[in-house]
């Protein structure tokens, strides 16, 4: 798990039972599909910033995260593209590190090593995440 800020934590996890986990996704957590840590972390930072500024398009940090990751403006499209599926995902917790650890244990998620982005791909990821702000 990586602390991005004191109130933003990201872990790469293996999800075996997405259908059972979906009801637990809420205000302080989201599970998404992403290619690498930096992509997910940057989208999480932008989501928090937009909520603080009052410029978010979603009502929750997790919803805003999905919009930022997908570059879409419709939450349904963002969920279809980047929402939780069985397999490798990223757990994003909008809260303290202790809460992130609790969630991993409660949901019986297997934590995996984090994957860092290839530098060439970073620009594309950052542009897509910021696009939601411009639209």
Please summarize the sheet with the most strands: 5 strands, antiparallel
> Mind telling me the C-alpha Rg?
13 Å
CATH topology: PF0523-like
List SSEs in N-to-C order. Answer: EEHEHHHEHEH
Structural class per helix/strand content? alpha+beta
CATH class: Alpha Beta
Query: What is the CATH architecture descriptor?
Result: 2-Layer Sandwich
Quote the beta fraction: 15-25%
- Helicity, in percent? 40-55%
Please indicate the count of domains.
1
Total helices: the number is 6
Low-pLDDT sequence parts: none
Number of strands: 5
Mean pLDDT: 91
Note the gap between the termini.
Answer: 32 Å
The backbone outline, from C-alpha atoms, is: globular
CATH superfamily: CGI121/TPRKB
Topology overview:
Elements: E1 2-5, E2 8-15, H1 18-21, E3 29-32, H2 37-53, H3 61-70, H4 75-82, E4 87-93, H5 97-106, E5 110-112, H6 119-134
Helix pairs in contact: 2-3, 2-6, 3-4, 3-6
């Amino acid at each position: 798990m990586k602390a991005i800020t004191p109130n933003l934590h990201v872990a790469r996890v293996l999800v075996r039972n997405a259908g059972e986990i979906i009801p637990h996704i809420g205000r302080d957590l989201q599970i998404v599909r992403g290619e690498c840590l930096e992509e997910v972390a940057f989208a999480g930072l932008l989501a928090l910033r937009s909520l603080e500024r009052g410029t978010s398009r979603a009502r929750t940090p997790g919803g805003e995260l999905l919009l930022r990751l997908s570059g879409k403006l419709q939450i349904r499209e963002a969920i279809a593209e980047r929402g939780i599926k069985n397999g490798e995902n990223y757990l994003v917790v909008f809260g303290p590190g202790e809460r992130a650890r609790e969630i991993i244990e409660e949901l019986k998620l297997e934590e995996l090593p984090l994957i860092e982005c290839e530098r060439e791909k970073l620009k594309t990821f950052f542009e897509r995440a910021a696009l939601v702000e411009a639209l």
